């Protein structure tokens, strides 16, 4: 058998695992921030929808910033310095929006 017929062993975390870990970690961080913020979240539905829109725009901009760099170290710096905080903000505002919608429809039981 030739050497090129053997599968290569990759070191480190693959892209799929990193994506799942970032999403799970972002959700955990967003729920922690939501618990710490308490009742000081925005009360106006228009302001909350605007914050959700800003969160999605920040998430898209931080994902676009990944294409501006070439080195692996810079990509990791942007992922953890820009993308993860934008992901946490988008998930946090999404959780606030879901809570507000549950309160409006009466699905929340307190």
Quick rundown:
The protein is mainly alpha-helical. It has helices spanning 15-37, 45-65, 72-105.
Instruction: Characterize the quaternary organization of these chains.
Output: single chain
Helix fraction by DSSP (H/I, runs of at least 4): over 70%
Number of separate strands = 0
The end-to-end span amounts to: 68 Å
* Coarse structural class: mainly alpha
Order of helices and strands: HHH
Largest sheet: none
Number of domains: 1
**Rounded average pLDDT:** 87
Uncertain segments are none
Query: In percent, how much strand structure appears in the residues?
Result: under 5%
What general form does the structure show? elongated
Query: What's the number of helices?
Result: 3
Computed CA radius of gyration, to the nearest angstrom: 19 Å
What distinguishing features does this structure have?
110 residues, mainly alpha, 3 helices, 0% strand, elongated
Task: Report what the structure shows.
With 110 residues, the protein is an all-alpha fold. The protein has one domain (29-105). The termini are far apart. It has helices at 15-37, 45-65, 72-105. The model has no long low-confidence stretch (mean pLDDT 87). The radius of gyration is 19 Å and the shape is elongated.
């Amino acid at each position: 058998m030739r050497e090129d017929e053997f599968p290569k062993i990759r070191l480190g975390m693959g892209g799929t695992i990193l994506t799942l870990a970032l999403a799970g970690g972002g959700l955990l961080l967003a729920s922690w921030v939501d618990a710490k913020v308490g009742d000081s979240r925005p009360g106006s539905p228009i302001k909350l929808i605007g914050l959700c829109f800003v969160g999605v725009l920040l998430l898209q901009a931080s994902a676009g910033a990944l294409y501006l760099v070439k080195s692996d170290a810079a990509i990791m710096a942007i992922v953890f310095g820009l993308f993860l905080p934008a992901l946490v903000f988008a998930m946090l505002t999404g959780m606030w929006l879901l809570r507000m919608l549950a309160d409006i429809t009466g699905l929340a039981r307190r």
